[in-house]
Amino acid sequence: MSELALHTDPDCLFCKIVAGKIPSRMVYQDDELYAFHDIHPWAPVHFLLIPKQHIASMAQLTDAHAAMMGRMMVLVPKLALLEGCNPYPAGGFRMLSNTGAEGGQEVHHLHIHVMGGPRPWLRG
Ligand code: 5GP
Ligand code: ZN
Question: Cα separation of 55 and 62, whole Å?
């Protein structure tokens, strides 16, 4: 997917991060996905994996997003290990996606939190 074809929202914090207008500590990127460290980590490892295109939340997903979401799921365990999560089963990681106000979502650009590392954690 070309950068020009990406749907973005100029007022969206994570679209600005994807565009490099707001700095972030990158973990991974490819044509359609971007991952970066959370600015307020809950755990020794805490990064966010997002689509580069603006999708407000999981509530907006359609069948057209199935392949991309599948790629995200497959990427999570790989990036978790690369970022320092310990191997399963003694280690592992937590992934979650807050969706909507009652789901605790604060930034309305779909994102998956990936957290791991030795406990205790700050939260979660
Ligand atoms: P939510 O509550 O929407 O699931 O999570 C949003 C996450 O984005 C929070 O964990 C918060 O710390 C993180 N975050 C908010 N603003 C920034 C930022 O400017 N840079 C980075 N790297 N993370 C951010
Ligand atoms: Zn966005």
Answer: 10
